[in-house]
Amino acid sequence: MSKPSLVLVHGSWHSPEHFAPLTKDLKGHGYHVVTVDLPSMRGSDLPPASLADDTAAVRKAVTAELDAGHNVVVVAHSYGGTPSNNALEGLDEKSRKANGASTAVLAIAFLCAIPTPAGKTFLDNVRVPRNGANCPQIADMSKNPDFAYVGEPGAHHFFYHDLPEAETKQWVDMLRPQAFLSYTGVTSHAAYHDIPCQYLLCSKDQALPYEWQKGHVEAAVAEGARIKTKTLESAHSPWLSKLKETSEFIREVAGG
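RE: above sequence
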């Protein structure tokens, strides 16, 4: 059986370019990799894009691979878990087979992600305390009320603190503002009820505290989500500090 295509969905303020080391590694293991460029992070010089726009971008990338005859595993990081979880209605194996299709989304790999339940907004979701932990206030709206920037003490602290500071400059320089609309859009679907998922808990994460991640997954499972977990001693961008382990996790989810 051929390997599934891997569709990578980045988190807040990030871009497909942040996945470059991971994309290279996964391609080296024989996977076809597609990265989604979420519209809400294409720059403040464009009209603000919404969660619906991000959801459509994920679904378009996934259905293109399915229509080309490839099964798919979606890999979603941080905020990317919300449009990914929202985008995959009817693309699970059972639904696709019922409609006569031979390809489907086989699994979702969440990397310290935020798959928001149906009927909720991303913003409301991250404001809920989990296991006694709260998510820190990262978004800075002072520069532009329509776009969020990374606030103090900065991206190195929130995303890359387990990397040497000199090494993080390239990643920080690539960060982009995110349209606030994407945080306030209401989801309509939760794919983790229909598609098997695995979640990489990052124990050194300073953007999404470890206990918050665990509590978020536990709440989803209590509502019927199909999620298994694995823990990695990593900050919020695990493929940059623990590339080998993150790649192995994704390949295990993909059946490799």
